[in-house]
Predict the structure.
Amino acid sequence: IKNNDIASLLDAKTIFWDGPSWSKARYGTSSLLLSSNNSNNNSNQNSNAPPPSKPTYYPKWMKGYHDIKYKFAGASFPQGKRILSLRTAGAGLGTCLSLPNVGYNPPVAHVMHFINDNSGNVGNDNGGKVYEDLAYNVPRRFESFWPQAKVLSVQTNGGDMKEDGSKNTVLLSPKCLVSGDGCSSDVNPSLHLPASRVAMEFDGPTRRGGRLTQSSDVTMLDHSIQDNDANGECYYTAKSYSQYNINQDLQVFYKEITSLERMNGSGGGIAGKIRVAAFLPRYVKDMDATSAGGAGDAYDEDEAVAIYDYKFFMKKTDSTKVL
């Protein structure tokens, strides 16, 4: 994506995949199953995850803790609903970590955290040094959108930078457990550093009834930013993701486009939009014998099959009130 085109994607009738090829973007499932069952042995982790991108950086006015409230704005299906299957990101609960329960409006705000990076590993052209605390934000968003689920652990690839500025594919942090074990900076120093991959274990209900401990792993494959507002009050990001839900052997792909506008009126705050475009590569669709249209349907695997839109509003909150 050309940086000056990101904003237009928020209103586009369709969106196309411009990330890595599907074969390079997918997880290697057998090794990931092994790593998920090995709680803190980094030697087995990530060997078959796709290469992650560098982290995304944000303007300085994003720093700190924010209450965020989402509101569903609609969904569209650029190639028609006949193409959809349960292997589409967003079709099932927890199958799109950007929007874990598409169509749901969380009744209360949850907290997000953005941190100023003082490490020197800052590669943003606009000089922004603020990054998203994935270990803090992703579990809270997940539980806000899916209240019946409970996150049990989280890991990131935080801080593992190569000399050329790219992200290393080898290591995840140790597991930070909901009990607090493994979460302190002395035993898990990279957990809250700039990251582009996050893995979670969670307890949640299943389609067949009962509850099950499940695992999900998502990697940001690439990203671009747009910051061409003369006053520096608007910021746009576009990110391509590969996600693998281990228990369902479910591989999904999606693109997330986000706008952030700093409000200078009474009370301030940040108004935003998030749009997620879900893609369905042919090899994924052909795995699903129950696809609505069957495996022989003609469609463009590089064009979104579903687009989900939300609006949100963020308001700075007192860090002393945050758990």
